[in-house]
DNA sequence: GTCTATACCAAGATAGAC
DNA sequence: GTCTATCTTGGTATAGAC
């Protein structure tokens, strides 16, 4: 039987972040009210402020946590000597990581302008770190003579933009399996940077 | 000398749309108030309702106008027999058209979820038309044996996603000229769909 | 066509009881 | 830790004077 009062502190915090994640992704940060989030969790709006100082912190927490997850997961990938293999590994990692977290990814790209300047700078720095990882791979490949890209920075952004596009259309259970998607994109990326 | 009262009807309408465009692109539809838009134009909030029935119509007008511009401009491009040449032309057109209208483009991608379902469907249909144009080129190329893409639909979305990425970083007067950007992206797209 | 004034409602956030 | 109640602000939209 559902309680309408009393303490739920053991799970409320995470539930608030989950609800905010879902609602921000669905309607956008600015369009979602603290009351909506509270309603989704099943508490009153005032109770949210036991877990977050304000709405902005809620957004920042979600985005920062996502970027931390991304960089941690990526840090677990081993680099080898062969740049082509590193690139193949990056493409697979990127697609899978992002498809597993559509809401987080959506927010991370759409809500940047709703961050305060300080929070924005922090997220941007993390994003830059991730991009530099890929750029390093491309630079290695150019140095090794296995890639031909006129500008590694632009190529980095182009590859990431292309891969991010997957999230806008892929639905599990659809026409293509995850493996097929990965193969298709790897094929295009590989050729795009090829000699 | 600035008037604080009186009729400005000859220019107010377009100025409202310009102000809304700028503010929506900067802060997001949901975060911008009618009062802000009015302030940017230099009228009182109530006056806006002589030009638009509501805020939603303002957004829809901007997005629909942008998609109409896109399709009209694209319709002016001549198709030739050579698929490779058509693709080259498409890439150049897309980059230039979109870089000339960063605010409109930004809104067209970011504010889709703030459209009512009916308005969303209308915009989606126009976007689909544009995508089908590119997909037709890719299909021709595959039929002619000059392109190798495992899936024309996915390749279409991948190419567009890659090209759209330009808008997130390109600034005129920066390190690269528009011609250089176009060359770099054409190089990658060409190779990505090559045999 | 724009103004001032306002109706009406919902926002973020806080206070104090339990 | 959550509730109810409320403060304060600002939102969209409308009415009626000029």
Automatic annotation (TrEMBL), chains A, B:
Coiled coil: none annotated. Signal peptide: none annotated. Keywords: DNA-binding, Transcription, Transcription regulation. Residues 33-52 bind DNA. SUPFAM superfamilies: Homeodomain-like, Tetracyclin repressor-like, C-terminal domain. Residues 10-70 form the HTH tetR-type domain. InterPro entries: Homeodomain-like_sf, HTH-type_TetR-like_transc_reg, HTH_TetR, KstR2_TetR_C, Tet_transcr_reg_TetR-rel_C_sf. It holds the Pfam family TetR_C_24. The keyword rRNA processing does not apply. This is TetR/AcrR family transcriptional regulator. It comes from Ruegeria sediminis.
């Amino acid at each position: 039987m559902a309680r309408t009062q009393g303490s739920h502190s053991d799970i409320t915090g995470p539930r608030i972040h989950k609800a905010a994640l879902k609602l921000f992704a669905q309607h956008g940060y600015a369009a979602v009210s603290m009351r909506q989030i509270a309603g989704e969790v099943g508490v009153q709006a005032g109770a949210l402020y036991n877990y977050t100082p304000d709405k902005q912190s809620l957004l920042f927490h979600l985005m920062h946590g996502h970027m931390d997850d991304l960089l941690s997961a990526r840090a677990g990938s081993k680099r080898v000597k062969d740049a082509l293999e590193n690139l193949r590994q990056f493409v697979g990692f990127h697609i899978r990581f992002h498809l597993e977290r559509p809401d987080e990814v959506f927010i991370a790209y759409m809500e940047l302008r709703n961050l305060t300047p300080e929070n924005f700078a922090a997220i941007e720095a993390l994003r830059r770190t991730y991009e530099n990882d890929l750029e390093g791979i491309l630079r290695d490949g150019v140095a090794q003579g296995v890639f031909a890209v006129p500008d590694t920075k632009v190529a980095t952004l182009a590859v990431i933009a292309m891969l991010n596009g997957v999230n806008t259309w892929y639905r599990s259970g659809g026409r293509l399996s995850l493996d097929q998607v990965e193969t298709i994109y790897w094929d295009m990326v590989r050729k795009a940077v090829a000699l």
